[in-house]
């Protein structure tokens, strides 16, 4: 079963002024599509791996043959990271974390400003391309803020990504050029806490 590019659940213009329409279109229709296409290419001829969904594939990355493991890490990670990224953004979103995820974040941070700053500092100190993540760590039964290079997926280390900001330049350069901090600040206005709560509930249920 080939992996497919999911449709965006909103228009390219929906996240303006925070994320511009050109960035949304190029990011989803070209960058994300390239990860999907190259993942399918890498898996061709590996029927056992083609049977896995993307989450299972990444959780079991160590069982992927070494010859194609880098391609699956980069493109499979890229596919899942972008699917999550586009799904946790929405128009008319943002604000403080709500619900169960809000309560959980409060256990780790004196206030939400401190939480946002933690995610932001990981985004700014990720040298080159990568992601700043909020993950659920099942082993520790705890939230963690982590940064990862390239398209490395938290799933490959047994973590469950709940929220992530893409800090590859392709995610922000058209509008923000070199001003990564401004992009991160604006991005918070797009975060859909309802969706993050869905991911958190599934993660705690072990799904
Ligand atoms: Mn990207």
Report on the structure:
With 207 residues, this protein is mostly helical. It folds into 2 domains: 21-87, Fe,Mn superoxide dismutase (SOD) domain (Helix Hairpins, Orthogonal Bundle); 99-204, Iron/manganese superoxide dismutase, C-terminal domain (minor pseudopilin epsh fold, 3-Layer(bab) Sandwich). The chain contains 9 helices and 3 strands, in the order ααααααβββααα. A 3-stranded antiparallel beta sheet has the order 2-1-3, sandwiched between helices. A hairpin with a 4-residue loop joins strand 1 and strand 2. The radius of gyration is 17 Å and the shape is globular. The mean pLDDT is 97. The structure holds manganese (II) ion. Residues 27, 31, 82, 166, 168, 170-171 line the site of manganese (II) ion. The site of manganese (II) ion has 7 residues, from helix 1.
Brief write-up:
With 207 residues, this protein is mainly alpha-helical. It has nine helices and three strands.
């Amino acid at each position: 079963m080939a992996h497919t590019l999911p449709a965006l659940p909103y228009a390219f213009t929906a996240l303006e002024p925070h994320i511009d329409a050109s960035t949304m279109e190029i990011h989803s229709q070209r960058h994300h599509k390239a990860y999907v296409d190259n993942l399918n290419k890498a898996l061709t001829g590996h029927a056992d791996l083609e049977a896995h969904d993307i989450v299972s594939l990444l959780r079991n990355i160590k069982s992927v043959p070494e010859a194609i493991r880098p391609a699956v890490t980069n493109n499979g990670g890229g596919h899942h990271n972008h699917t999550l990224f586009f799904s946790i953004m929405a128009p008319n979103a943002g604000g403080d974390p709500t619900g169960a995820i809000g309560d959980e974040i409060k256990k780790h941070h004196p206030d939400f400003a401190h939480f946002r700053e933690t995610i932001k500092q990981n985004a700014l100190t990720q040298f080159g391309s990568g992601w700043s993540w909020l993950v659920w760590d099942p082993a520790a039964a705890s939230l963690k803020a982590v940064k990862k290079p390239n398209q490395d997926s938290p799933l490959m280390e047994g973590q469950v990504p709940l929220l992530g900001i893409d800090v590859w330049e392709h995610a922000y350069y058209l509008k923000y050029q070199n001003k990564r901090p401004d992009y991160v600040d604006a991005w918070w206005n797009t975060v859909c806490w309802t969706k993050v709560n869905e991911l958190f509930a599934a993660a705690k249920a072990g799904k």
